[in-house]
Write a structure and sequence with these properties.
241 residues; alpha/beta; Ubiquitin-like (UB roll); seven-stranded mixed β-sheet
């Protein structure tokens, strides 16, 4: 795993020993890492670089970048391990690299060879193994290697699940917002209707008050007339002599 962007080191398990490859960048390919490790341990043969995440493994292509492959694991990038596996005949006395014991206190370091960078636009190599034998000997035909199952990118799956949960939560919130908007429109309609009724009642009350005032004035006028009629002197009746 990468120890940091500034150090640019890649830790690889080789025969049960953790080794550190220095000078690794985002453009460093698996083939360059394998060549550097093979030169450091002094072995020849065919090797592959395997990316291990928990209990799943994926065999990297020669032109694939280990740094980029580790970055695609998202939040699980710190759990990624790289294992250098020899696909040729096993060496006697060498422990298998399938089981990775705890790292040594002083890991062995290897540096990438100072060779020119291959062109990025060339066609990628189809083989899944790297031949690191002597340069003077022509490599023979290689038996077909079984393809390792592709490990799903757990970080991307987790991000997609989070987005799906957020979309469902937003849909629920939008449904609730539409419901409360409809309730608000109903309340506003009921309020307008109540205001119209109140205005009608106010107009009827004013009309009845005016009628009561008119009737009160008529009653007072009649009372005054009756009072005047009661106080007026009556004419005397004639008497016979």
């Amino acid at each position: 795993m990468l120890s940091g962007l500034a150090a640019m080191e890649l830790k690889v398990w080789v025969d049960g020993i953790q080794r550190v490859v220095c000078g690794v960048s985002e453009q460093t390919t698996c083939q360059e890492v394998v060549i550097a490790l093979a030169q450091a341990i002094g072995q020849t043969g065919r090797f592959v670089l395997v990316q291990r995440l928990r209990e799943k493994e994926r065999q990297l292509l020669p032109q694939e970048c280990p740094v980029g492959a580790q970055a695609t694991c998202g939040q699980f990038a710190s759990d990624v391990q790289f294992v250098l596996r020899r696909t040729g005949p096993s060496l006697a006395g060498r422990p298998s690299s399938d089981s990775c014991p705890p790292p040594e206190r002083c890991p062995i370091r290897a540096s990438l060879p100072p060779k020119p960078r291959p062109a990025l636009d060339r066609e990628p190599c189809k083989a899944l193994t790297f031949s690191l034998g002597c340069s003077g000997q022509a490599p023979g035909p290689l038996p077909p290697e079984p393809l390792a199952p592709v490990v799903p990118v757990l970080g991307c799956c987790t991000d997609l699940q989070g987005l799906e949960r957020r979309v469902r939560r937003n849909a629920v919130e939008l449904g609730q917002e539409a419901f409360w908007e409809q309730e608000l429109r109903r309340e506003q309609a009921r309020e307008r209707e109540a205001q119209a009724r109140l205005q009608a009642l106010s107009a009827a009350t004013a009309e009845h008050a005016a009628r009561l005032q008119a009737l009160d004035a008529q009653a007072r006028a009649l009372e005054a007339e009756l009072h005047l009629a009661a106080e007026a002197p009556r004419p005397s009746s004639p008497t016979a002599s």
